[in-house]
């Protein structure tokens, strides 16, 4: 349905006499019930898109740490925004310079306990973020989850 039709139906439902006078039912205009369904579907679309986005808060599962992930200009980064570790510095960049290659994000992960930047890959599957880190000791994989820690 065209947006103009939805807008006309929504405006016609107002109390304003001028708005009602300007609204003339179109032959192809859907019944009000159809407009309400489309309106609810359109409102739900951003929520679904947000759920699929890698952006947001991720729980590391260690020290109740929460990383706020954002994407700007095609580059992903993540900062520590909460933790139970007293020595940790909030605002520390943990994920840096990640670029998307297909379904994988590749960049650098900062390991605060080792004070090292390590190459890493991120892959999102729903509310799970799979992280593979390359270190001198070999490859290590961890999983972060979206939501409360």
Features:
alpha+beta, eight-stranded antiparallel barrel, 8 strands, 25% helix, disordered N terminus
As a percent range, the share of helical residues equals 10-25%
Q: Report the top-level CATH class of the largest domain.
A: Mainly Beta
- Biggest sheet features: 8 strands, antiparallel, barrel
| Approximate strand percentage | 35-45%
Beta-strand segment tally: 8
Count, helices: 3
Whole-number radius of gyration?
23 Å
The CATH topology of the largest domain is given as Lipocalin
Strand neighbour order, sheet with most strands? 1-2-3-4-5-6-7-8
- Unreliable residue runs: 1-51
Question: Topology, please?
Answer:
Layout: H1 3-12, H2 17-22, H3 32-52, E1 56-59, E2 66-72, E3 75-82, E4 93-101, E5 104-111, E6 116-125, E7 128-135, E8 138-146
Antiparallel strand pairs: 1-2, 1-8, 2-3, 3-4, 4-5, 5-6, 6-7, 7-8
Helix pairs in contact: 1-3
General description of the model:
With 149 residues, the chain is α+β, with helices and mostly antiparallel strands. It folds into two domains: 3-51, no CATH class; 56-146, Lipocalin (Beta Barrel), CATH 2.40.128. Helices cover 25% and strands 42% of the residues. The protein has three helices and eight strands. It has helices at 3-12, 17-22, 32-52; strands at residues 56-59, 66-72, 75-82, 93-101, 104-111, 116-125, 128-135, 138-146. Strands 1-2-3-4-5-6-7-8 form an eight-stranded antiparallel β-barrel. Helix 1 packs across helix 3 (32-52).
